[in-house]
Amino acid sequence: MEDIIISLKDNKHFGKQISERLKPLYDWDRALINALEKITNCILNALEDGKSISILNNKSFEYATLGDVSLLEGLIRDLAKEGYSKHAGKLFEARTPLEKEKLSTLNKKLNDLSYVLKRIVNDVAKKVLDREMDRVKDAIENLFVFHLESLQKSATDTAPDLAINFPQTVLTKVSCTVNPNFSFEGGFPVLQESYTEEVTKKTGTKRVWFFFNKDIYVTKVEKRSSDNAHIPSFEELDRGWKLQKERGEIEAYNVILAWWKEQFNQFDRGVGKFQADVIDEYQIRLDRAYRDNRIDHDSKMEAWKPLKGEAELVSSRINQLGAEWKSR
């Protein structure tokens, strides 16, 4: 798309001016991609640094609601407190109740982070897309206007007597509303596994000599349970978020491309109908001109018939007089 529009600057009907006006047709998606990347990169950097950041004054979140931004700040702060940066990319084996509680908390906080991220991304994407769609609509209208002007010039050069003027009514605008549907999954699967551990227990006592007792201990291998999980690394988080962002972006693209197709089809139908109407009108004018000329021809012929008879009579008399003159 970008190469096609840039090439228009060398077209005699368009030129550099129109190619500049059509830039939104190929750069609108960059604004969306850049806005979302800034958000995820900012969060990843904060998690990696292991400390809370001030997002409230960050321009990357200017389109997000204040409530969601505050929740996000709190979650980043909580994950830093739980030591997420220390455990990221590693296997966490939770054997004690305290360790299991910590693992559960990490999992819940990452899930909550993904949920808030989804809300923020959808809000930001909606506002960015609304802004960019206004630019795209203006660009498409500019394209159609320039195309009509090109058609107008060609029609005038080809048939100046027809006085063809393409009306602006062919610029039918098709409404388009894009509701982003980004979804982010967070957290990690926790597996309940078992491990063995040697446990030494006191089983009793026995008398040693006459005055001493000795404790008796037995060591056994016991089976215990643990909650194990691989804590996603920063790279894995980034990779997962990128894939999930792409799904939402593709869904938005499909909606916009369907709108583009309908918008162009409407324009094409409008131009086609107008051209057909012009041809029909021209045919009517030709038929009327032919009919008027025929009527004029027939009326002239009727007027000339008596004169023609008189001329033939005079010619006959002249010939008769000439024959009589020669016989003398």
Helix and strand arrangement:
Blueprint: H1 2-7, H2 16-21, H3 24-49, H4 66-81, H5 84-87, E1 91-94, H6 97-158, E2 191-208, E3 212-230, H7 234-327
What descriptors fit this protein?
328 residues, alpha+beta, three-stranded antiparallel sheet, 7 helices, 65% helix
Question: What would your notes on this structure say?
Answer:
The chain is α+β, with helices and mostly antiparallel strands and 328 residues long. The protein folds into two domains: 2-182 and 231-287, no CATH class; 189-230, no CATH class. Helix content is 65%, strand content 12%. The chain contains seven helices and three strands. The chain has helices at 2-7, 16-21, 24-49, 66-81, 84-87, 97-158, 234-327, and strands at residues 91-94, 191-208, 212-230. Strands 1-3-2 form a three-stranded antiparallel β-sheet. The chain is rod-shaped, with a radius of gyration of 44 Å.
Main beta-sheet annotation: 3 strands, antiparallel
* Average pLDDT taken over every residue: 78
Share in β-strands: 5-15%
Order of helices and strands: HHHHHEHEEH
Taking the alpha carbons of the first and last residues, their distance comes to: 101 Å
Helix content: 55-70%
Can you count the beta strands?
3
Please work out how many helical segments DSSP would assign: 7
By secondary-structure content and strand pairing, the structural class works out as: alpha+beta
Which regions are unreliable across 5 or more consecutive residues at pLDDT < 50? none
Radius of gyration: 44 Å
- Shape from CA axes? rod-shaped
Write out the strand line-up for the largest beta sheet, numbering strands in chain order.
Answer: 1-3-2
Q: What count of structural domains?
A: 2
